[in-house]
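Structure ticket #2291
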Amino acid sequence: MPKTATAPGPKPAVAKGHARRVTWTVAVGMFLLVLSLLAPVRILSLGLSASAATLFLLGFVFWQRGRSTRQKQASDLEVIGGFIAQDATPSFVADGDGRIQTANAAAKKRFDIPVQGTLASVLKATLANPASIIFRLQTRANASGAAQEEILTREGHIRVSVHAVDPDHLVWRVDRVAERAAPRAAQDSQHLPMLMVGRSDAILFMNDAARALVGSRVKGLDRLFTSLPVRPGLPNELSTHQGAMDVLVAEVSAGAGRRALYLLPQPQNTAAEQGWQAFQDLPVPLIKVAPDGSVRSFNKMAHEMIGIALVKDEHLSKLMEGLGRSIEDWIKDTLADRSVQKSEFLRLKRADKEVFVQVVLNPITEAGEQSLIAVLHDATELKTLEAKFVQSQKMQAIGQLAGGVAHDFNNLLTAISGHCDLLLLRHDQSDPDYGDLVQINQNANRAASLVGQLLAFSRKQTLRLETVDMRDTLADLTHLLNRLVGETITLTLSHDPVLKLVRADKRQLEQVLMNLVVNARDSMPAGGEIRITTEYQTLKEPLLRDRVTVPAGEYITVQVSDTGVGIPPDKLQKVFEPFFTTKRTGEGTGLGLSTAYGIIKQSNGFIFVDSIVDRGTTFILYLPVYETRPVKAQSAPKVPTAQVQPHEHGVILLVEDEAPVRAFASRALRLRGYTVLEADSAEAALETLEDQTLSIDVFVTDVVMPGMDGPSWVREALKVRPDVRVVFVSGYAEDSFGEEQTRIPNSVFLPKPFSLSDLTNTVQSQLH
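Resolution: structure written out below.
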C-alpha cells in the first residue's frame, strides 16, 4: 500500500464526536468530585462521589469506543488505499471536508499534491471552479452513494466520480474521456464495399469499406476494374493496392442515371445464384424477382417476414395483395422506368396475422438478363395507425348520418303512429279494420325500435336512466335467455357476493345482454356453454387497453363467455362496426354489437372483446358504480286504447315545421279539449304572441327547425310571458340540447316518435 500523500489531518467527524463526549464526561465528573469534597453533609458527599465515579466510568467507555472507531477507520483507510493503489486512474481518498487522506500512484504522477492539501487545491489547475463541482458531487454522493459528472476542460473531457464509503471517507476518481467521433454518413457505416457511379462511369462516392478494399480513393471505373463494362452478377477483376482480385458485383439503380455497385467476395461456386447467397445475412428482407413476377431467390429476413409461403418460383401475387393493379403491370412499369411512385404498400397473405409491407422494386442486370430486387420494410404499425384513423373518421361520418336519418324517420313514425292512434280511437275490436290498424301500430313500433338502434350506435338516443342491480336484471332475464339459447347450450350465471348498483337504462342494458348471448349462441352451432359472470372491481390506477383508458374507480364488470368458434384476429377489430357481420345474408343486420357499443358508451361504460379461434370469445363490460339512493323507474308508455279521456281546458301553442306531425298533434290535443294555436316556424310563433290578448298556457315546440330553433324562440317568448310552461319535442336525443333545456325553466322533453297518450299526458302534467 502506498503511503499517504499528505500528513495526517484533523480527526474525522466521528472521532471528534467521541473525543468531545469523553472530554465533557470527565469534566463533569471532576466537577462533581470537587463538590463532594466540599459538601457539608456526608450523605450528599457520598451521592456526589458516586455520580462522579459513574461519569468517570462512562468516560472510559466512550474513550474505548472512540479508540475502536479510530482503529476501524484506520483499517478501512488502509483497505481503500490498497484497493486504489494499482488503479491506472488517478484516485484519492478524502474526508468530508475535502482533505486528502490517501492518493494512488497515478494521482501522484498526474497532479502536484501539496502537504495537507485538499482536493480543490489539487484540481484548481485543471478545473475553473473545482470547489463548487466537488461540493455538488459530494452532496449527491451523500444522498445516493455515488455521483459522477463529465466536464469539458482545456485539456479535453474529464470525468470526475465520487463514491461515499462512510460519512468520513469518500473515494474520488479523475479520468480522461475519449473524444467522440464525428457523425458519419449512413453509407460509411455499411459493411459491404459500395461505389456510387455516374452516367460517365465516374465514381461519385466510395464508402469506408470500399476505400479499405481498394486502398485509396479512385475517381473512375477504368482505374478500378481491369476490363469494362462491369458485368453485374459475374466475377470482375478489381485492381487494389495488394494486387488484382476477383469480386462479384451487384448493381442497383439509384435514380437520375446513377447506379450503386456492391463489391462482394468471390464465392467458391461462380454460379450467379451462389452470388445471391452473399445477401443471405443482410438485415434487410430482399427478394430477387423475375420479369414475370416469379421468385428467383430470397434471403433469410424475407423468409421470416413472409413465412413458409415464400418458396422459389412462387408468384408475388400469391404472397401479397392490395396493389390496386396486377403485379405484372407493376413490374413492367418498373422495368420500363414508368413508375411515378417508387414504393407500394401491400398486405401479406398470411393466415396467422396481418402484416403490411412497404415494397421498393429496383431493376438489376445479371449476365445480360433483367431481374428485380424487391426491398421489403415492415409497415404494419404505420398501416394500422392509418386504418384506425380512417376508421374513426368513417365511424364519425356514419354516426352523423345515422343521427340525421333517425331524426327524419322519427318524424315520419310520429305521423304514422299518431294518425293510427287517432283511427284506433274511432274503432273498437269488433270493427273489421281494427286488426289492420293494430298491425300498422305494431310495425311502426318495430320501425321505431330499429331507429333506436341507429341512435344507440350514434350515441344520440335518449336513455331513461335508473339505478340497476345486475343480479336482479339477470334474474329477470334468465327465463328469456334460456329460451334463446336452446337445449344444446348450457347457460351459467355466476355473481360476485359484493355487487353495487350501476346507473343505466335497464331496457337498453337488457338489449345489450341479449345481443351478446344471441351472438354467443350463434357461434356454437353444435352446442356448448355460455357463462355470464358479474364481479365488483376497484381500479386503483387507470386501465389502458385497446387504445382506451378506463379511469380509476369502482366498476361492476359483466363477462359473457362462450366456447364457440372464436373470431379471427383480422376481424376482431371490426366487430363493433355498424353493418359488419360474419353471418350469411338474411341472418343478421350487423347492428347488434354496434348498438351494444353505443349503449355502453352512452352509459359511461366500456366494452372489450377477447377471442381465440376455436376456443371461444369473451365480451367484458365495465359499468361505473353509482353511489346514491335508488331512483324509481319511469313507467312505460301506455298502449293507446279506445277509451275517451276526460276533457281538459287550456290554450296550447303548437310549433312544428313537419305538417303531418303538426296535424296529428293538433288533433290529439283538441280531442282532449285543449284550444290549439298552430305555427309552422319559430318566427310565426313569435308573430302570434304579439297579440297581448292571447293567454297561452303551454308551448309545445320542436327543437330543430329551419331558421330559429326551439330553445331560441322560447327564450324570447318567456321574456314577456315568464309563466308559460314548455314541452320540447325532437327526433334527436335529449342530451343533444340538454344544456339549453336546463337554462329554460318549467320545461320538459318528449322524444319522437311519441303516441297520442304520450303527448296528451305530458301536456296535462305541465298544466297540473
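Closing remark: Residues 467 and 503 are 4 Å apart (CA to CA).
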